[in-house]
Amino acid sequence: MTRFQALNLTFLVAVAALAGCGGSQVAEFQHLPKGEGNIPIGKAQGLDGGESNVLVEYSDGHKSEIVTNDQTVFSSPMPEGKTKVTVYPSGKGYSKTTIEFDAGSEQNYQFNIRPLPVSVSSRDVLFISSIRDGQVFKIGQQYDLNIKILGPNTRNLRPTVYLSGGFGRLSTDDKLTPTRTGSGDIVVQVKDVKKSFHVFVEP
Asked: For labelling, which of 52, 53, 144, 155 has a CA lying 20 to 30 Å from the CA of 19?
């Protein structure tokens, strides 16, 4: 078996086992183009070094499947507009995670997707952060977003964090560096629960 065949088999098993989706879901991904490009659009973190399968759905309707084993998700240039990214972890006991954001001018490191154990419930989750709605950031400065979650079975776990609007970059430890003037959203997500902060960037 070639390495390509092994990766493809891993992908199909991961989709069937973790998405709980049956044959129709697998068929949807079988003929997708492999992700190509050198833009590191984000990270799929916290999976103990295992391979993850990532589905990127672009605003122009095309899709791409990406297999990553170093947590970095690479892409060709993203058309501006609504972009959906779904991570299917290979590790047993983790839930798939989907985010949706507006791709913009800045496309490097737009997200830190952190699939959580299936045992974690989004019910009664509280988000703690130093961000506030309407906050103004300066281009080129770095800001620690100090994002934490509190709730049942969430000890030592970190939420998914992403940007919408293409106004900055996220480090792997959720530090924001604004790179474009304008406005956008910082979104914190635990499974199906989200908290969004609309922020502004000035020179």
From this structure: 155
State the pTM of this model: 0.81
Confidence tier at 93 by pLDDT (50, 70, 90) = confident
For the chain, what percent of residues have pLDDT higher than 70?
Answer: 80
- pLDDT one-digit tens code per residue, 8-48: 333 333 333 333 333 333 334 444 555 567 899 999 886 66
Long-range contacts of 16-22 (CB under 8 A, 24+ apart): 17/92, 18/88, 18/89, 18/90, 18/94, 18/95, 18/96, 19/88, 19/96
Q: What is the dihedral of CA 45, 112, 187, 195, to 10 degrees?
A: 10
